[in-house]
Amino acid sequence: MNLFETAAYAADAGGPQGDAGLINLLFLAGFVLIFYFMLWRPQSKRRKEHQALMAGLQKGDEIVTAGGVVGTINKVEEGFVKVQVAGNVEMRFQKSAIGATLPKGTIKSLEES
């Protein structure tokens, strides 16, 4: 027996498996569906809701900005709104910075507490 002799045995060459390609395609389709339903669709829905919010802003609406400033809209301009945050204090915000509208009377209830 020779210590340096190596034997190479050929493995049985299996035929090409047609099922493996189909399974890989199904996994890819599954990942695409998961991506769509968990990421793209909710983000698109949230974007549409925010655009509807910005389009529906009117004078007198009580709002809260993304930074947490609460106030009442005094004037709606093209891309901005003027918001009264205190007695005689008005601030100008971009419409995209408006986080949500509040129910009427929210600011008054905040001032009382």
- The helix/strand series, from N terminus to C terminus, equals HEEEEEH
Strand content: 15-25%
Number of structurally distinct domains: 2
User: Can you count the helices?
Assistant: 2
The helix-and-strand class reads alpha+beta
Explain this structure to me?
The chain is α+β, with helices and mostly antiparallel strands and 113 residues long. It folds into two domains: 18-55; 58-112, SH3 type barrels (Roll), CATH 2.30.30. The protein is built from two helices and five strands. It has helices at 18-55, 106-112; strands at 62-65, 70-76, 80-84, 90-94, 98-102. It has a five-stranded antiparallel sheet. A hairpin with a 5-residue loop joins strand 3 (80-84) and strand 4 (90-94). The longest helix is centred in the N-terminal third of the chain and has 38 residues, at 18-55. The protein is elongated and about 100 Å long.
